[in-house]
Specification:
The complex is a heterodimer of chains A (about 170) and B (about 650). With about 170 residues, chain A is an alpha/beta fold. Chain A has one domain: Glutaredoxin. Helix content of chain A is about 40%, strand content about 20%. The longest helix of chain A has 20 residues, at about 5-20. Chain A is elongated. Chain A starts with a helix and ends with a helix. The relative contact order of chain A is 0.20. In chain B, helix 5 (about 90-115) packs antiparallel against helix 6 and helix 17 (about 430-440) packs across helix 18. In chain B, strands 2, 3, 4, 5, 6 and 7 form a 6-stranded antiparallel beta sheet that branches. Chain B has a 4-stranded antiparallel beta sheet with strand order 1-10-9-8, with helices on one face. Helices cover about 65% and strands about 10% of the residues of chain B. Chain B has 4 domains: about 1-165, Four Helix Bundle (Hemerythrin (Met), subunit A) (Up-down Bundle); about 195-425, no CATH class; about 430-520 and about 630-660, no CATH class; about 525-620, no CATH class. Chain B has about 650 residues and is of the alpha+beta class. Classes of the chains: A alpha/beta (about 170), B alpha+beta (about 650).
Amino acid sequence: MNRIVLISGIVIFAALVGVLFLNLGHDPSAIDSPLVGKPAPSFALKAVGTGETIDVARLRGKPAIINFWATWCGPCYLEHPVLVQNARVLGNQVQFVGVVFNDTEQKIQAFLADRGSAYPTLLDESGKTAIAYGVGGVPETFFLDRNGKIVAKYTGPMSTEDIQKNLAKAMK
Amino acid sequence: MTATLGRFLILASVLVSTTGAMISFAAGRKHAPEGVRWAQRFAYAFAALMILATLTMEYALLTHDFSVSYVAHVGSRSVPTWVTIVSLWSSLEGSILFWGAVLGIYIAAATYLNRDQHAEYMPYAIGTWLACGAFFSFLLSGPANPFLTVPAAADGPGPNPLLQNHYLMVIHPPFLYLGYVGMTIPFGYACAALLRGRLGLSFLKPMRASLMVPWIFLTCAIMLGGWWAYEVLGWGGYWAWDPVENASLLPWLTATAALHSAIVMERRGVLKGWTVTLIQASFLLTILGTFMTRSGVFNSVHSFTQSAIGPTILAFLAAVLIFSIALLATRIDTLEAEGRIDSAASKEGAFLFNNLIFVLLTFTVLIGTVFPLVVEAVKGKQMSVGRPYFDAMVVPAGTALLFLLGIGPALPWGRSSRQQILKALLPPIATGGVLIALGAAFGIRNGWTLATMFVGGYAAHVTLAQMWQPLVQRLRRGDSFGNALVNGQLRRGRRRFGSYIVHSGAVIVLIAIAVSSTQRTQHEVKLTKGQATTIGAYTLTFTGTEVRQEPNREATIANFNVAKNGTPVTTLAPRMNQYPQMREPIGTPAVYSTLKGDLYLSIMNLEGDTAGVLVLWMPMVGWIWFAVILMGIGGLVALIPSRAVIAVEAKDSVAAAAPALS
């Protein structure tokens, strides 16, 4: 038994595998946002189709998910069915809202007609809401607790697990 | 139907590889010749199943069978046929399948080449390979199954547009896989030597050859990756110390070290345990690289998106690490040294320093890559380790390596007198001085670059002198030039000749990297149609934009006329390719390559008749690609031994080892 080899081997093993293991669940695209822990910036936007105005206050009372997306965004096509399905399942407990920016109402309506919708989609015509939320790329999703405080932000298309994991923080 | 066939082939390969691994290990322990033959049969069967499964996937891709999950994921009716074929490695599951096929081919080839040799080691080696094969077929049977049956759609999204955008992205991944997967073979040999508790000189040959093959592929793959980044990403660089780039560099560093320590082992009978350790590290680092690109833990432009196989690969990495450490700790002392190293001022001394620097580099790059994860795990903060860290650590180490590349080959083996050493080391200084003067004349003022020029000149002198030494000796003895060339360089000592070709390539690469990264000039400029900008001797005139419809994309092209000192030399057409499934267009820069350097033009933005462009002058970049190809060719030359050479080498090594033993 060569002790030096054994001990140095174990040290390297423990360090490397330990660090990798601790990072396993972690997602590098989950970028810290200064908004996390703060009240959601206010907005009042018109819903596509109905024309109804929805503001941030309307989202209070139950946890909410604000999903920024656009019809010109490829990954949003992947994410859309996941969101719709989750919204149908969780509809009573969680308020889903889509915010579309840099886009036209016509294209959004065609998109939703084609791929289904289960929650209000708001058109951010001026792009001011996206700026207020510091949206760098779409899709980006904010998770709000029942008091309207942002508890998590997710960048990139989400899977059902990603939604559940972040919702757990909002449900607390 | 196709999906079912694929699943069947994968399950059969799980069965064959696990059974085969067990039979092989048992055959090794019992020294049973019949068992060895069965081990070989299982190795061939595994290869056949993996290749068939891959062909089944190609068939599904080509027939647009969207009921196969992987085809539904990456297939499309609207992309060209070649894109459909290479879609095999465009996404996670397919790339693992391709990995399995490459592994199968490697295992079958290594088994076949040693079918009548090294019977004491081979069963252990085959057992180790098949155990690795078992892991990858297990991945394909569950966590990364490409053959799931899904409701068939009419059409699919097509593969990642980056793959469709440039031919280099088509050849880079196969080279990388051939390099990564190939490391399994020397790993198997190293484990066999440890399990057997012996590493004879004769077994060193297949071990070194099996290391050389993936080394050549990995060398080319790293270059192709850098070349791709340079030709496609448009920021004017070829290396960014991105985690995935580092992942390909790490096993290359340890494999290069192992190739060198194997020479000392062959000549002196020492460093056996060390060489075996380096080989095992190379394999482990390829698994780490696989984890880094496929776990979603690292953020990189090159990596696959987040996937569920991260934990499985980590478990495999941990298992292989434990196995290797246990094997090394219990068996390394059985590989006893047959000689010893007498003096630091000798070839073997230089080899030791070389190994030291390569290992140091490996740890430097590894720590820089993993450090952000440590911080994230401990403090929960995000950070990245950037260029300054890597440059500060790697530039001195690279320069030192280049210096050793000159000194090592010049020094004689064993103990020698002061005069002998000085006679070997002093003359190349003159060539180093000439290169400094040349660099200074071209306007280089950076201290590190000038230092690189000096040691590069020194190394070039030694390399060329050593490379052609057999020819020169024969000419002095009165041989005709033709005879001297064939007998001195090609028929005998091909391995030596090949190694020095690799060395000359390495000298050029290191100088070209130093020059291109410190001597580049660049500016960003906004031009309207008809306007021009100058860089060095070149004048670029913007002649307008055009939009071109191509089957799988829409390209916006900006046209430039390029003149050197007023004489038109070429036109450049950097473009933006818009793929239907991407939001942002992918820019493709245009490069005009000359011997002196590259004129590099990349679009920043396009609005009507106005183009914002990045204009770069990168000296000597083309030399990098050329010199790495030279390194690959040198590796190939070294790899093809002739029977005569083997006999001569064996005699040589006995003669060389003799003084040390007395």
